[in-house]
Batch of 3 targets.
Target 1
Amino acid sequence: MRHHCGVAQITFHGSLLFFRPRGSAGPASVAFERDPSIKDAIESLGVPHPEVDLVLSGSRSLALEARLEAVDRLDVFGLDRPEDLAGLPGLIPPPPDPPRFVADGHLGRLARYLRILGFDCWYERDAEDDRLAHVAAEENRILLTRDRGLLKRSIVRLGYLPRTDDAAGQFGEVSARYSLPSRARPFSRCVRCNGLLRPVERSAVLERLADQPRTLRYFDSFSECSNCGSIYWPGSHYERMSRFLKTYAGLDAP
Ligand SMILES: [Zn+2]
């Protein structure tokens, strides 16, 4: 087996510059002794592979498993590649439709927003990294995390690192990246457990809401989580969330 050693130049573009030190828009040098994969070389510069959609050597596009060569000058793009490269096949697999997610333990509010929009979002506050990566891989879910190391794991195929640490901003990013507004079914899913909601008769919830006479007086339509039994109604929470969805996802709730 041949072993190369040398230096390759890798230039990151667009949304991937987020992962590079500020002000380092030019090519980054990777010195190596063995033949690293392009995945490893790119990740050694801080960019997790699920964010990489196109690797170009001149006009030739390369797979992440390809080996880095000493002569390589690579250009690396995320999903936001320029228009003249639109025709080249991407490395990021198509996400499930509608998209399904896994949110790491720090993204509880984002998970909540996604569920309110009706998207299936796996979330356990204390889940370990191993578990998150496995759930994402086995259930073909998009892993949402601000932890680069977690996104770099090889079994993770679909993933996104929200650029901001503000939950509303994260929601806007995810919403745009996965075209959520057109696929949303707001208020169809339980924010507590991710179960699907189904409509229930007022008479069926009378007893359980006996301690909330105002709710029973003012609302007629109720739904119930098919998994945990939580009861929902279009109260003030609903109106506040409707405004939120309108602002951050451009979406009119029903
Ligand atoms: Zn539930």
Note: The two ends are 62 Å apart (CA to CA).
Target 2
Amino acid sequence: MKISDALELISPRLPTGTLRQRRLRACHTVKDLRTAARSLLPSAVFDYVDGGADQELSLETNTSAFERYRYLPQVLRDVGSPDTSGNFLGRPAALPLGFAPTGYTRMMHPEGEPAAARAAAEHRIPYVLSTMASTSLEDLAAAPGADAADRWFQLYVWKDRELTRGMVSRAQSNGYRVLEVAVDTAVSGKRLRDVRNGLTIPPALTLGSLLDIASRPNYWMGMLRGEKLEFANVRSDEPGGHTIEGISDQFDPTVNWEDLARIRDTWNGSLVLKGPLGPEDAMRAQALGVDGVHLSNHGGRQLDRTVAPVDLVAPVRAAVGDSFGIFVDSGVRHGSDIATAIALGADACFVGRPYLWALVAGGEEGVGHLVRMLTEEFTRTMQLLGVGSVQELRARGPELLHCHEPAVMRTDRPGQERKSPRWMSLNN
Ligand SMILES: Cc1cc2nc3c(=O)[nH]c(=O)nc-3n(C[C@H](O)[C@H](O)[C@H](O)COP(=O)(O)O)c2cc1C
């Protein structure tokens, strides 16, 4: 090769775009977004997002439960123009994916809830605002761009029922389409990382966090420049006030099905229950006029050692029939996880941490990057499976999916474990 030919091969690539764009271009997976978020957040804030309750066993098995499933694709089926559109209780979406409610989102990034909701609107997927949000339901409904999103509101039933009723009517009058009642928070889960880190909300400037300023200056600059952090759906003079302890004290362990019946009577829109619901609870909700269930263990942040929500999809679908809404979250990290959930019988999935990491990594642009990444992964999975639409994936799911159980299983004789993986068809 002549020197001039060799020189042609060397084309120095100068970095283009903003720092944020370059960071996002280097993120090819949800795991990459998590790594980026870790490098930008103070460790206590990163742990607040990342961590789970107690021994974090639910947290761990949420992702590994998805990874146990294996596909048996069907070939030669013309998958030239796959239709990835989903449906959320009668409203079409570009993808069977939504953003789950997360409290205090502006602690992760000053653009907060409006940025996540704007990205959801732009990509035509639903966004659920939390009771514990750092943007009020009125402000989100009025935020340019976010107002166009399919907006849901997640409700905690509080000790002060007047406050709860007030929130339901505010959600109604501000155009929220779906009310999602979280039923997994009779009491607050114990997140040991937060306890050990001494995390307070809002984060306090302690000696530890002052040291942190040196290593995460942009985070602290963003926080100091941004609006005051508060639980925006509650006035500071209302019960619960503006502290995490005050709010957690408002969780009511006496909440029961009668409260739900009252909510059903007052709420005119679609109603969904969010929590780790088994077939019996799902049928009871259906009988009460609830429109769907959002199977979730709060991303492993409440009761530890719960069944992974993805494993509840098939039994709950069998119990409630075809037309009842089934959504699932906790552990969705790849487009193929969405495909697995649908093949098991879900209508759609939600994600929590992945969009928070994306928000940290790149604000609204980062959240858009995540949706494009998951869309691409989901589309490719559908094509390689040999299915042309989400409806087809759900209908043919049992033929396409097998469950791979890597767990060590006991034989009759104690002490002799069978270590080889067992393949089990879901039809069995
Ligand atoms: C930082 C954080 C805050 C959350 N806050 C709420 C909340 O206020 N209300 C709620 O119902 N769920 C909340 N969740 C749970 C999410 O809605 C969702 O169920 C969970 O994140 C899904 O699991 P994943 O993070 O593995 O996707 C929160 C989750 C995280 C990570």
Note: The chain has one domain: 31-403.
Target 3
Amino acid sequence: MARARLHPDGGTLRCPSGHTFDIARHGYVSLLTGSRATSGDDAAMARARDRFLSTGRYGPVRQAVARLAAGAASERGRGTVVDVGCGTGYYLAGVLDRLPAARGLGLDTSVRALRSAARAHARAAAATWDVFRPFPLADGVADVVLDVFAPRNPSEFHRVLRPTGRLVVVRPTGRHLDELRGRVPAMVTIDPFKEERLHQALDPCFVAAATEQVEYVTSLTGPEALDLVGMTPSVRHSNRADLEDACLLPDRVTVSVLATAYRPR
Ligand SMILES: C[S@@+](CC[C@H](N)C(=O)[O-])C[C@H]1O[C@@H](n2cnc3c(N)ncnc32)[C@H](O)[C@@H]1O
């Protein structure tokens, strides 16, 4: 897709050469045309994520993201925030709450997640997009790019950010959800070289400016524990009946993540 400006036209967005992109009944825009992306949360995972995040158990992570993002926006809280792999828009909404005059755009391949993201905040829009394709955004338009537990495209992050902008990346440490790993078969393990690989991937385009480590233990009800597993890819390899076995899931978990704000080189 050429990087031409899109204009609203009835229930669609139209580009100058006449292509139209539908605005779904649920509020997100279908920009992703052609071959389908190979990754993205299915409807059950997106519903589980919606329910789990609405409990507030990841509230401290959301606050850290908002703090780091706020450092990059203008004094009056203006600016554009792009959340890549936004899921249900939980973190994007947290940042927009903190920046009273900013607007947000969530991009994701999961249409079920985008239904929630489109409603996550009055100043947020949501669109289908594959992070591995060139983003549907002009150069230097974003003050903040968020990437929270989502796939990354460093060169596109860099292209769409203003020189004064910030990329905020959240990823798990080796202790994240440790209590689940022993109990849930196929629970995704954390690559011990994850930090090194992240550094190598981002280093050509970004310099780390500030990092917050967020680590705490949170209690879980049975349904919350099921949703926490249900929103991860490991659920695809697990048997729900096994998971529902009360002995299997813990009643508390360690949340342990690193959140870093990077400035463009
Ligand atoms: C672990 S979830 C994180 C969602 C959200 N950032 C959060 O933390 O709640 C990963 C997200 O990336 C999305 N995703 C996976 N592959 C993608 C791709 N190629 N392009 C865009 N989004 C993708 C998934 O659909 C999912 O919403």
Note: Strands lie at 7-9, 12-14, 20-22, 78-84, 101-108, 124-128, 142-148, 161-172, 206-219, 252-264.
